[in-house]
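Possible regression after last week's pipeline update?

I re-ran a chain I had predicted before the update to compare outputs. Posting the input and the new output here so someone can diff against the archived version. Not blocking, just want to make sure nothing changed silently.
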Amino acid sequence: MIVEDELLVALDLETIVEDSGHQFDGPYVSVAETNEALDLRMPQCAILDVRLKDGEVFPVADRLRAAQVPMIFHSGHADVTHLLERYPGSQICNKPSTPKQLRTALEIALA
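New output (post-update):
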């Protein structure tokens, strides 16, 4: 699952996920839209921007954590210490990230 409200960044993430041999769902641009998608199906992994069109992603991340879905936070506004305390085991890729960093985070999350 890709949760990202910047179109060009979302397109880059889609390419990285596909080039890594995986399928993606999304991109979703808001907390509300993402929660609607989660009502239908939980993903195997989620790449999350922190700031979305309608607020911060944390309600979505809390729901994913409760379902034990691995998460990769991909944001330029991430407090890494706070994220790792609140979501232990999650991967953090600060924007801008290289494709290699994102592929590595994806491999770790799906392992």
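Follow-up from reviewer: compared with the archived run. Residues 7-19 form the longest helix (13 residues). Marking as no regression found.
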